[in-house]
Structures are given as C-alpha cells and as structure tokens.
Amino acid sequence: MDDAVAMQAFDQAAFEEIESALTGELASWGLASTALGITLGLGTGGPLRRFGRQTAMWGIVDLAIAGVGRLARSRRGMLTPDEVATQVARLRKLLWANAAADVVYVLGGTAIAVRGAAGRTTFRMGVGDGVAIVIQGGFLLLLDVPYARKLSA
Known about the structure:
Elements: H1 3-9, H2 12-43, H3 46-75, H4 81-117, H5 127-150
Helix pairs in contact: 1-4, 2-3, 2-5, 3-5, 4-5
C-alpha cells in the first residue's frame, strides 16, 4: 500500500488508537514477563533460573520500548494528513522488519534450546534461555504481524 492510500485510510485519531493498543499490549506483556522472570530467576535453579533471567530481561526491554512509544505519542502535536501517512508507513515498515527479526529470535532460541538439551551452551546460554527466547520471539511475532496488517488495510 502506498502512502496516498494510507493517508486515506487513517486519520490521526485512528493511527494513535492503533499505536496506543500496540504499546499497551507490549507493556502488559513486558510487565508480566518481568514479574514472572524475576520470580523464577530468584526462586529456582538450573534451566528454570535461566528461563527466568532471560524472560525478565526481555520484559524490561519490552517495557522500555512501550514507554518510549507512549512518550513519543504524548509529545506529538497535531499532524497533517501527509504526516499521518508518513507515520503510518514508518510504523508499518518497522513492524514488518520486527516480524522478520522475531522469526530469527524463534529460530535462534530453538537452536540454543536444542544445544542446551544436548549439554552444550551457546553464548553461555542453555535450554532455559532458548525456550524463553522462543516464547518471547513468538509473542512478538504474534503482536507485530497483526498490527502491521492493520496498518496495511
């Protein structure tokens, strides 16, 4: 979809509603991941501790990204229709690029988990780290693709 179509499909309020929903879901996931990760990371050992540590780190990053998105939106003034179209196109491209990265996270996490299950570590990560990366990458893929598609409507 080109920017002219995006401009017709979205006004600023509709675009910001999508942005708000996206950052809200990411923040909720980030908060849950951080809480679960800290709980598991402090209260267990072995693979579950690694899973918890990795999950907490991803959760903190997710919270930071959602926070930056909310802050940017709160500082934004009124946009012209052309500026809305530019913002829609920019976010759509970012989400598709993120979706590609999410696939890499799932594949990389799978490789780390398989190697860890065989007793080998990758970058000092074992099976718990790999499973956490697969879960995080899978969630992000399931978040990014539908929002990118919404912005392509």
